[in-house]
Protein backbone atom coordinates (compact mmCIF):
# COMPACT_ATOMS: atom_id res chain seq x y z
CA UNK A 1 0.00 0.00 0.00
CA UNK A 2 1.64 3.22 -1.18
CA UNK A 3 1.01 6.80 -0.16
CA UNK A 4 2.65 9.96 1.12
CA UNK A 5 2.04 11.62 4.46
CA UNK A 6 3.52 14.75 5.99
CA UNK A 7 3.52 14.69 9.78
CA UNK A 8 4.11 17.81 11.79
CA UNK A 9 4.44 18.47 15.51
CA UNK A 10 6.84 20.50 17.55
CA UNK A 11 8.09 22.00 20.75
CA UNK A 12 7.68 19.52 23.58
CA UNK A 13 7.62 15.75 23.94
CA UNK A 14 3.86 15.87 24.57
CA UNK A 15 3.31 16.58 20.87
CA UNK A 16 6.29 14.73 19.46
CA UNK A 17 5.83 11.35 21.17
CA UNK A 18 2.38 10.75 19.62
CA UNK A 19 3.83 11.71 16.23
CA UNK A 20 6.63 9.23 16.85
CA UNK A 21 4.04 6.54 17.58
CA UNK A 22 2.38 7.20 14.20
CA UNK A 23 5.73 6.99 12.42
CA UNK A 24 6.61 3.71 14.14
CA UNK A 25 3.25 2.19 13.22
CA UNK A 26 3.48 3.21 9.56
CA UNK A 27 7.04 1.96 9.16
CA UNK A 28 6.13 -1.37 10.71
CA UNK A 29 2.83 -1.99 8.93
CA UNK A 30 2.97 0.10 5.74
CA UNK A 31 6.61 0.05 4.55
CA UNK A 32 5.67 1.44 1.12
CA UNK A 33 4.22 4.63 2.58
CA UNK A 34 6.59 7.59 2.36
CA UNK A 35 6.70 10.05 5.23
CA UNK A 36 8.15 13.48 5.75
CA UNK A 37 8.33 15.29 9.10
CA UNK A 38 8.24 19.07 9.45
CA UNK A 39 9.57 20.35 12.75
CA UNK A 40 10.90 23.50 14.37
CA UNK A 41 14.54 24.52 14.35
CA UNK A 42 15.11 24.22 18.10
CA UNK A 43 12.38 21.91 19.46
CA UNK A 44 12.83 18.45 20.95
CA UNK A 45 11.90 16.90 17.60
CA UNK A 46 15.47 17.60 16.49
CA UNK A 47 16.63 15.01 18.99
CA UNK A 48 13.74 12.53 18.81
CA UNK A 49 12.79 12.34 15.13
CA UNK A 50 16.05 11.92 13.11
CA UNK A 51 16.92 8.57 14.78
CA UNK A 52 13.67 7.19 13.34
CA UNK A 53 15.19 7.47 9.85
CA UNK A 54 12.43 9.68 8.48
CA UNK A 55 12.87 12.55 6.03
CA UNK A 56 13.09 15.60 8.32
CA UNK A 57 12.65 19.26 7.41
CA UNK A 58 12.89 22.31 9.68
CA UNK A 59 11.15 25.66 9.57
CA UNK A 60 11.08 28.71 11.81
CA UNK A 61 7.94 28.93 13.91
CA UNK A 62 6.95 30.70 17.09
CA UNK A 63 3.88 30.79 19.27
CA UNK A 64 1.68 33.77 20.03
CA UNK A 65 1.91 34.06 23.81
CA UNK A 66 0.31 36.70 26.02
CA UNK A 67 2.25 39.47 27.73
CA UNK A 68 1.35 42.33 30.06
CA UNK A 69 3.87 44.67 28.45
CA UNK A 70 2.71 46.65 25.38
CA UNK A 71 6.21 46.67 23.94
CA UNK A 72 6.57 42.98 24.53
CA UNK A 73 3.20 42.31 22.89
CA UNK A 74 4.24 44.23 19.77
CA UNK A 75 7.54 42.34 19.60
CA UNK A 76 5.83 38.95 20.00
CA UNK A 77 3.23 39.83 17.38
CA UNK A 78 5.81 40.99 14.82
CA UNK A 79 8.01 37.97 15.43
CA UNK A 80 5.01 35.65 15.11
CA UNK A 81 3.89 37.23 11.82
CA UNK A 82 7.41 37.24 10.35
CA UNK A 83 8.02 33.59 11.21
CA UNK A 84 4.53 32.61 10.07
CA UNK A 85 5.07 34.18 6.65
CA UNK A 86 8.55 32.67 6.31
CA UNK A 87 7.24 29.31 7.47
CA UNK A 88 4.39 29.34 4.96
CA UNK A 89 6.70 29.98 2.01
CA UNK A 90 9.12 27.31 3.21
CA UNK A 91 6.30 24.78 3.73
CA UNK A 92 4.78 25.45 0.32
CA UNK A 93 8.10 24.56 -1.28
CA UNK A 94 8.33 21.37 0.81
CA UNK A 95 4.74 20.35 -0.01
CA UNK A 96 5.17 21.14 -3.70
CA UNK A 97 8.23 18.90 -3.83
CA UNK A 98 6.88 16.03 -1.71
CA UNK A 99 3.25 16.06 -2.96
CA UNK A 100 1.61 14.41 0.07
CA UNK A 101 -1.80 12.72 0.11
CA UNK A 102 -2.35 13.99 3.65
CA UNK A 103 -0.87 16.44 6.12
CA UNK A 104 -1.30 15.29 9.73
CA UNK A 105 -0.81 17.78 12.54
CA UNK A 106 -0.06 16.37 15.99
CA UNK A 107 0.09 19.67 17.85
CA UNK A 108 2.29 22.66 18.54
CA UNK A 109 2.43 26.14 16.97
CA UNK A 110 4.33 24.74 13.99
CA UNK A 111 1.03 23.35 12.70
CA UNK A 112 -0.12 26.88 11.75
CA UNK A 113 2.26 27.51 8.81
CA UNK A 114 2.13 23.87 7.73
CA UNK A 115 -1.68 23.74 7.69
CA UNK A 116 -2.03 27.13 5.95
CA UNK A 117 0.41 26.00 3.26
CA UNK A 118 -1.43 22.71 2.79
CA UNK A 119 -4.81 24.45 2.49
CA UNK A 120 -3.46 26.98 -0.05
CA UNK A 121 -2.12 24.06 -2.10
CA UNK A 122 -5.39 22.11 -1.79
CA UNK A 123 -3.94 19.29 0.27
CA UNK A 124 -6.07 17.44 2.80
CA UNK A 125 -5.27 18.04 6.43
CA UNK A 126 -6.08 16.05 9.55
CA UNK A 127 -5.66 17.21 13.14
CA UNK A 128 -5.07 15.19 16.26
CA UNK A 129 -6.10 16.68 19.60
CA UNK A 130 -4.27 15.18 22.56
CA UNK A 131 -5.97 17.12 25.34
CA UNK A 132 -9.47 16.98 26.76
CA UNK A 133 -9.94 20.70 25.98
CA UNK A 134 -8.99 21.38 22.34
CA UNK A 135 -6.20 23.81 21.63
CA UNK A 136 -6.71 27.07 19.78
CA UNK A 137 -5.03 25.93 16.56
CA UNK A 138 -7.02 22.73 16.30
CA UNK A 139 -10.26 24.60 16.90
CA UNK A 140 -9.28 27.14 14.25
CA UNK A 141 -8.52 24.49 11.61
CA UNK A 142 -11.42 22.20 12.55
CA UNK A 143 -13.67 23.37 9.72
CA UNK A 144 -11.06 22.82 7.02
CA UNK A 145 -9.74 19.50 8.38
CA UNK A 146 -10.85 16.32 6.66
CA UNK A 147 -10.59 14.41 9.92
CA UNK A 148 -10.36 15.41 13.58
CA UNK A 149 -8.90 12.70 15.79
CA UNK A 150 -9.60 13.07 19.50
CA UNK A 151 -8.01 11.41 22.52
CA UNK A 152 -11.04 11.66 24.80
CA UNK A 153 -14.62 11.03 23.71
CA UNK A 154 -15.72 14.10 25.67
CA UNK A 155 -13.62 16.35 23.42
CA UNK A 156 -16.02 15.75 20.55
CA UNK A 157 -18.56 18.16 22.07
CA UNK A 158 -16.12 21.08 21.77
CA UNK A 159 -15.52 20.43 18.07
CA UNK A 160 -19.18 19.81 17.22
CA UNK A 161 -19.91 23.42 18.15
CA UNK A 162 -17.58 24.52 15.33
CA UNK A 163 -18.47 21.94 12.67
CA UNK A 164 -22.21 21.47 13.05
CA UNK A 165 -22.65 20.41 9.42
CA UNK A 166 -20.00 17.69 9.40
CA UNK A 167 -19.77 15.96 12.83
CA UNK A 168 -18.86 12.55 11.36
CA UNK A 169 -15.32 13.71 10.71
CA UNK A 170 -14.68 13.65 14.46
CA UNK A 171 -13.08 10.29 15.25
CA UNK A 172 -12.35 8.96 18.73
CA UNK A 173 -8.89 7.48 18.26
CA UNK A 174 -7.22 7.91 21.63
CA UNK A 175 -3.70 9.28 21.93
CA UNK A 176 -0.98 7.21 20.20
CA UNK A 177 1.83 5.97 22.44
CA UNK A 178 5.25 4.77 21.38
CA UNK A 179 5.92 1.10 20.77
CA UNK A 180 8.25 0.85 23.76
CA UNK A 181 5.43 2.02 26.05
CA UNK A 182 2.80 -0.23 24.44
CA UNK A 183 5.14 -3.17 24.89
CA UNK A 184 6.35 -2.23 28.36
CA UNK A 185 4.94 -5.43 29.89
CA UNK A 186 7.35 -7.37 27.71
CA UNK A 187 10.35 -5.29 28.76
CA UNK A 188 12.70 -6.50 31.43
CA UNK A 189 11.97 -5.50 35.01
CA UNK A 190 15.44 -4.31 35.95
CA UNK A 191 15.50 -2.64 39.36
CA UNK A 192 19.28 -2.75 39.63
CA UNK A 193 19.67 -0.65 36.49
CA UNK A 194 18.13 2.27 38.34
CA UNK A 195 19.77 1.54 41.70
CA UNK A 196 16.52 0.23 43.20
CA UNK A 197 15.44 -2.78 45.25
CA UNK A 198 12.78 -5.13 43.92
CA UNK A 199 10.70 -5.54 47.09
CA UNK A 200 10.20 -1.85 47.83
CA UNK A 201 7.21 0.26 46.78
CA UNK A 202 8.53 2.48 43.98
CA UNK A 203 7.32 6.05 43.50
CA UNK A 204 8.39 7.72 40.27
CA UNK A 205 8.12 11.51 40.14
CA UNK A 206 8.56 13.77 37.12
CA UNK A 207 7.30 17.12 35.85
CA UNK A 208 7.29 16.64 32.09
CA UNK A 209 10.16 16.68 29.63
CA UNK A 210 11.47 20.02 30.97
CA UNK A 211 10.95 19.36 34.67
CA UNK A 212 8.77 21.26 37.18
CA UNK A 213 10.29 23.08 40.15
CA UNK A 214 7.32 22.79 42.52
CA UNK A 215 7.07 19.05 41.94
CA UNK A 216 10.83 18.70 42.38
CA UNK A 217 10.76 20.63 45.66
CA UNK A 218 7.98 18.45 47.02
CA UNK A 219 9.81 15.31 45.94
CA UNK A 220 13.03 16.37 47.65
CA UNK A 221 11.03 17.06 50.80
CA UNK A 222 9.87 13.45 50.76
CA UNK A 223 13.41 12.38 51.58
CA UNK A 224 13.13 13.90 55.05
CA UNK A 225 9.78 12.18 55.56
CA UNK A 226 10.87 8.73 54.41
CA UNK A 227 14.59 8.71 55.27
CA UNK A 228 14.03 5.92 57.84
CA UNK A 229 11.55 3.97 55.70
CA UNK A 230 12.73 0.57 54.45
CA UNK A 231 9.71 -0.13 52.26
CA UNK A 232 9.61 2.90 49.96
CA UNK A 233 11.99 4.08 47.25
CA UNK A 234 11.74 7.20 45.11
CA UNK A 235 12.87 8.03 41.57
CA UNK A 236 12.90 11.76 40.71
CA UNK A 237 13.36 12.78 37.08
CA UNK A 238 13.94 16.47 37.70
CA UNK A 239 14.83 17.88 34.27
CA UNK A 240 18.26 18.85 32.95
CA UNK A 241 18.01 22.45 34.12
CA UNK A 242 17.48 21.41 37.75
CA UNK A 243 19.77 18.39 37.99
CA UNK A 244 22.99 19.99 39.22
CA UNK A 245 21.28 21.94 42.01
CA UNK A 246 19.19 19.03 43.27
CA UNK A 247 22.17 16.68 43.14
CA UNK A 248 24.05 18.95 45.54
CA UNK A 249 21.06 19.37 47.83
CA UNK A 250 20.33 15.66 47.97
CA UNK A 251 23.96 14.91 48.71
CA UNK A 252 23.90 17.28 51.68
CA UNK A 253 20.69 15.72 53.02
CA UNK A 254 21.79 12.10 52.87
CA UNK A 255 23.27 10.38 55.91
CA UNK A 256 24.89 6.98 56.20
CA UNK A 257 22.27 5.76 58.69
CA UNK A 258 19.35 6.47 56.32
CA UNK A 259 17.29 3.60 54.94
CA UNK A 260 15.70 5.63 52.15
CA UNK A 261 16.52 4.95 48.53
CA UNK A 262 16.23 8.15 46.47
CA UNK A 263 17.48 8.16 42.88
CA UNK A 264 17.82 11.38 40.91
CA UNK A 265 17.99 11.64 37.09
CA UNK A 266 18.01 14.70 34.80
CA UNK A 267 16.03 13.04 32.00
CA UNK A 268 15.13 9.47 31.07
CA UNK A 269 14.58 8.33 27.49
CA UNK A 270 13.76 4.74 28.41
CA UNK A 271 10.47 5.50 30.15
CA UNK A 272 9.16 1.98 29.48
CA UNK A 273 11.88 0.64 31.74
CA UNK A 274 10.98 3.21 34.42
CA UNK A 275 7.27 2.44 34.18
CA UNK A 276 8.10 -1.26 34.51
CA UNK A 277 9.52 -0.73 38.01
CA UNK A 278 7.02 1.95 39.11
CA UNK A 279 4.11 1.33 41.48
CA UNK A 280 2.96 4.95 41.67
CA UNK A 281 3.60 8.00 39.47
CA UNK A 282 3.54 11.63 40.58
CA UNK A 283 3.46 14.01 37.62
CA UNK A 284 1.87 16.81 35.65
CA UNK A 285 -1.20 15.91 33.60
CA UNK A 286 -0.02 16.39 30.04
CA UNK A 287 -1.93 14.39 27.43
CA UNK A 288 0.95 12.01 26.67
CA UNK A 289 1.44 11.25 30.36
CA UNK A 290 -2.29 10.48 30.72
CA UNK A 291 -2.16 8.14 27.72
CA UNK A 292 0.93 6.36 29.01
CA UNK A 293 -0.54 5.94 32.49
CA UNK A 294 -3.67 4.45 30.91
CA UNK A 295 -1.63 1.99 28.86
CA UNK A 296 0.68 0.98 31.71
CA UNK A 297 -2.12 0.87 34.30
CA UNK A 298 -0.09 2.71 36.93
CA UNK A 299 -2.02 4.69 39.59
CA UNK A 300 -1.01 8.32 39.83
CA UNK A 301 -0.99 11.52 41.83
CA UNK A 302 -1.54 14.28 39.27
CA UNK A 303 -0.56 17.93 39.67
CA UNK A 304 -1.96 19.86 36.68
CA UNK A 305 0.18 22.68 35.36
CA UNK A 306 -1.79 25.76 36.45
CA UNK A 307 -0.78 27.96 33.51
CA UNK A 308 -1.80 25.50 30.80
CA UNK A 309 -4.03 27.13 28.20
CA UNK A 310 -7.70 26.89 29.22
CA UNK A 311 -6.56 24.83 32.20
CA UNK A 312 -6.53 21.78 29.93
CA UNK A 313 -4.26 19.73 32.21
CA UNK A 314 -6.88 19.88 34.94
CA UNK A 315 -9.46 18.35 32.61
CA UNK A 316 -6.95 15.74 31.43
CA UNK A 317 -6.33 14.76 35.05
CA UNK A 318 -10.03 14.73 35.81
CA UNK A 319 -10.49 11.88 33.34
CA UNK A 320 -8.24 9.58 35.39
CA UNK A 321 -9.69 10.83 38.68
CA UNK A 322 -13.26 10.11 37.56
CA UNK A 323 -12.15 6.64 36.53
CA UNK A 324 -10.54 6.10 39.94
CA UNK A 325 -7.02 5.80 38.55
CA UNK A 326 -5.57 8.97 40.05
CA UNK A 327 -5.62 11.48 42.89
CA UNK A 328 -5.57 15.16 41.92
CA UNK A 329 -3.84 17.90 43.87
CA UNK A 330 -3.70 21.57 42.87
CA UNK A 331 -0.28 23.04 42.16
CA UNK A 332 -0.61 25.71 44.87
CA UNK A 333 -1.52 23.03 47.42
CA UNK A 334 1.42 20.79 46.61
CA UNK A 335 4.15 20.39 49.23
CA UNK A 336 6.21 17.59 50.69
CA UNK A 337 3.71 17.35 53.52
CA UNK A 338 0.59 17.09 51.35
CA UNK A 339 2.27 14.67 48.98
CA UNK A 340 3.49 12.40 51.76
CA UNK A 341 0.00 12.47 53.27
CA UNK A 342 -1.53 11.26 50.00
CA UNK A 343 1.08 8.51 49.66
CA UNK A 344 0.53 7.32 53.21
CA UNK A 345 -3.25 7.29 52.68
CA UNK A 346 -2.85 5.14 49.57
CA UNK A 347 -0.65 2.65 51.40
CA UNK A 348 -2.47 2.35 54.72
CA UNK A 349 -4.59 -0.71 55.59
CA UNK A 350 -2.36 -2.97 53.57
CA UNK A 351 -2.48 -0.64 50.51
CA UNK A 352 -6.27 -0.90 50.29
CA UNK A 353 -6.90 2.34 48.36
CA UNK A 354 -3.91 1.75 46.11
CA UNK A 355 -5.09 -1.74 45.20
CA UNK A 356 -8.55 -0.37 44.38
CA UNK A 357 -6.99 2.13 41.96
CA UNK A 358 -4.79 -0.53 40.40
CA UNK A 359 -7.77 -2.80 39.72
CA UNK A 360 -9.71 -0.24 37.63
CA UNK A 361 -9.67 -0.64 33.83
CA UNK A 362 -9.82 2.12 31.22
CA UNK A 363 -11.15 2.16 27.67
CA UNK A 364 -8.08 4.11 26.56
CA UNK A 365 -5.76 1.18 27.19
CA UNK A 366 -7.76 -0.94 24.75
CA UNK A 367 -7.39 1.41 21.77
CA UNK A 368 -4.71 1.02 19.11
CA UNK A 369 -4.68 4.74 18.40
CA UNK A 370 -1.89 4.77 15.84
CA UNK A 371 -3.64 2.05 13.85
CA UNK A 372 -6.97 3.90 13.88
CA UNK A 373 -5.42 7.15 12.65
CA UNK A 374 -3.18 5.60 10.03
CA UNK A 375 -5.89 3.36 8.58
CA UNK A 376 -8.26 6.31 8.17
CA UNK A 377 -5.67 8.42 6.38
CA UNK A 378 -4.55 5.69 4.03
CA UNK A 379 -7.97 4.36 3.08
CA UNK A 380 -8.90 7.73 1.58
CA UNK A 381 -5.61 8.76 0.07
CA UNK A 382 -6.89 8.38 -3.50
CA UNK A 383 -10.32 9.90 -3.01
Number of helices: 14
CATH topology of the largest domain: Rossmann fold
CATH superfamily name of the largest domain?
Glycogen Phosphorylase B
Using the CA coordinates, give the radius of gyration. 22 Å
Query: Which blocks of ≥5 consecutive residues have pLDDT under 50?
Result: none
Question: Secondary structure elements and their pairing?
Answer:
Elements: E1 3-8, H1 13-29, E2 33-40, H2 45-48, E3 55-59, H3 70-98, E4 102-105, H4 111-120, E5 124-129, H5 136-140, E6 147-150, H6 156-160, E7 170-172, H7 179-182, E8 201-206, H8 213-226, E9 232-237, H9 240-253, E10 261-265, H10 271-277, E11 280-283, H11 287-296, E12 300-302, H12 312-322, E13 326-328, H13 336-359, H14 369-379
Parallel strand pairs: 1-2, 1-4, 2-3, 4-5, 5-6, 6-7, 8-9, 8-11, 9-10, 11-12, 12-13
Helix pairs in contact: 1-14, 3-4, 8-9, 8-13
Can you walk through the features of this model?
The chain has 383 residues and is α/β, with parallel strands linked by helices. It folds into 2 domains: 3-174 and 367-379, Rossmann fold; 181-365, Glycogen Phosphorylase B (Rossmann fold, 3-Layer(aba) Sandwich), CATH 3.40.50. It is 43% helix and 16% strand. The protein has helices spanning 13-29, 45-48, 70-98, 111-120, 136-140, 156-160, 179-182, 213-226, 240-253, 271-277, 287-296, 312-322, 336-359, 369-379, and strands at 3-8, 33-40, 55-59, 102-105, 124-129, 147-150, 170-172, 201-206, 232-237, 261-265, 280-283, 300-302, 326-328. A 7-stranded parallel β-sheet has the order 3-2-1-4-5-6-7, with helices on both faces. A 6-stranded parallel β-sheet has the order 10-9-8-11-12-13, with helices on both faces. Strand 4 (102-105), helix 4 (111-120) and strand 5 (124-129) form a beta-alpha-beta unit. The longest helix is centred in the N-terminal third of the chain and has 29 residues, at 70-98. The mean pLDDT is 91.
